[in-house]
């Protein structure tokens, strides 16, 4: 059998076979034993040093020479969605599917590990990081809490995500924020219930909650810099209702997206001020529970410039957007970028045909045509960041 670096069609066939197998067997959150086992066994076959169980993930290390160290990260988990596709590699697990393309991310990074182990051509250490539980924002934190960067103190760390809205084989990147944070909130409004026919004897929390919902919209429009975008959405207005009863309590829940820690702090402080102030004005009380689920994904400027240069070399400069618009979705790789400099970039998955459906859709599928492109990008990035002498 020829080496994969001498037979591109064979290399693509291997990556596609891996990707389809992962797609047929999706796993959720930290429960990724089969996927992690496949990754670990593959890395060992390539000759890498492998450590399993770091925060539920897998780490493979490949070293040549005495140069610096970089980390390359892929996510392994799927989503709790019933797949509606009928092709041969559709999910065999009811209620689960790879609707975000993590099967493709894993296959591409494995392909890069295989090629780099066969070809060399770099001076330093590559730490291949395969992470669980990205979808709920817990995997990166779990791996770091379990000593990921203490055991493997990389100088920089990189990750990518496929993007159906970008033409296949194009790259989008930018310095600074590229993905938003995600904060969640719950506001518990305590009033005084009573008969609907006697509202003057109550403190109606529905009225209070309605005013708080409207007032919260002024945070983005009147309290934050209009050149710094954010989104605040109340997504749940919950009350234990009966037709002729004014309730004692209302619970509001929702979601916040922003791009800087300063915005997050301003929104949280403003939310508490508005909720507590509006409630007090009506003789009610409001308790705000505010949590930080995902950090904003903020790229190091030098690392983003390096990714743009590498992508231009591999794909051509006309296929690289070096200053793309940031995305309001969130990614827990942002937690890694709080610890290490690095870059997160987007690889086009195509707007039509395979992979053209939006992420998190029951009809989504990763575009196999970009598997080798992603692996090529990882290989060239390693050689650009860890150049071998001569």
Concise structural overview:
With 390 residues, the protein is an alpha/beta fold. Helices cover 35% and strands 24% of the residues. It has two domains: 4-179 and 297-385, Aminopeptidase (3-Layer(aba) Sandwich); 182-294, Alpha-Beta Plaits (2-Layer Sandwich), CATH 3.30.70.
Poorly predicted residue ranges? none
Domains, number: 2
The CATH topology of the largest domain, please? Aminopeptidase
Q: What characterizes the major β-sheet? A: 8 strands, mixed
For the largest beta sheet, what order do the strands appear in spatially? 1-2-4-3-5-16-6-15
Rg, rounded, reads 24 Å
Q: End-to-end span in angstroms? A: 30 Å
Strands, total number? 16
Tell me the CATH architecture of the largest domain.
3-Layer(aba) Sandwich
Top CATH class of the largest domain: Alpha Beta
Helix content: 25-40%
Order of helices and strands: HHEEEHEHHEEEEEHEEEHEEHEHEH
Instruction: Write down the overall geometry.
Output: elongated
Beta-strand level of the residues, as a percent range? 15-25%
Helix count? Answer: 10
Q: What is the CATH H-level superfamily of the largest domain?
A: Zn peptidases
Mean pLDDT: 95
């Amino acid at each position: 059998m020829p080496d994969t670096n001498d037979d591109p069609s064979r290399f693509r066939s291997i990556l596609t076979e891996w990707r389809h197998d992962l797609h047929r067997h999706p796993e959720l959150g930290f429960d990724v034993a089969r996927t992690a086992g496949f990754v670990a066994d593959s890395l060992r076959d390539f000759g890498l040093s492998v450590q399993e169980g770091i925060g539920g993930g897998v780490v493979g290390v490949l070293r040549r020479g005495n140069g610096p160290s970089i980390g390359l990260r892929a996510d392994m988990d799927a989503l709790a969605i019933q797949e509606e596709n009928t092709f041969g590699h559709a999910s065999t697990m009811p209620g689960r599917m790879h609707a975000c393309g993590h099967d493709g991310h894993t296959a591409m990074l494995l392909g890069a590990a295989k090629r780099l182990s066969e070809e060399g051509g770099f001076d330093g250490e590559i730490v291949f990081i395969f992470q669980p539980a990205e979808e709920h924002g817990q995997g990166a934190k779990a791996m770091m809490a379990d000593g990921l960067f203490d055991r493997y103190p990389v100088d920089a760390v990189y990750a990518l995500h496929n993007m159906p809205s970008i033409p296949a084989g194009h790259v989008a990147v930018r310095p600074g924020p590229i993905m938003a944070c995600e904060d969640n909130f719950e506001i518990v409004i305590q009033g005084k219930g009573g008969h609907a026919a006697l509202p003057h004897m109550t403190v109606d929390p529905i009225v209070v909650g309605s005013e708080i919902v409207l007032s919260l919209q002024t945070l983005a429009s009147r309290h934050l810099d209009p050149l710094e975008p954010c989104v605040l959405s109340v997504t749940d207005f919950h009350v234990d209702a009966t037709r002729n009863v004014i309730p004692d309590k209302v619970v509001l829940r929702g979601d916040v997206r922003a791009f800087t820690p300063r915005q997050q702090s301003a929104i949280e402080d403003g939310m508490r001020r508005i909720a507590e102030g509006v409630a007090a004005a009506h003789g009610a009380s409001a308790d705000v529970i505010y949590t930080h689920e995902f950090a904003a994904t903020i790229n190091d400027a030098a690392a983003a410039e390096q990714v743009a240069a590498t992508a231009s070399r591999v794909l051509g400069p006309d296929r690289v957007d070096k200053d793309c618009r940031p995305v309001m979705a969130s990614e827990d790789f942002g937690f890694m970028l709080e610890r290490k400099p690095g870059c997160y970039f987007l690889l086009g998955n195509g707007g039509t045909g395979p992979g053209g459906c939006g992420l998190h859709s029951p009809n989504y599928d990763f575009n196999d045509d970009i598997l080798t492109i992603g692996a090529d990008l990882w290989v060239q990035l390693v050689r650009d960041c860890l150049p071998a002498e001569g």
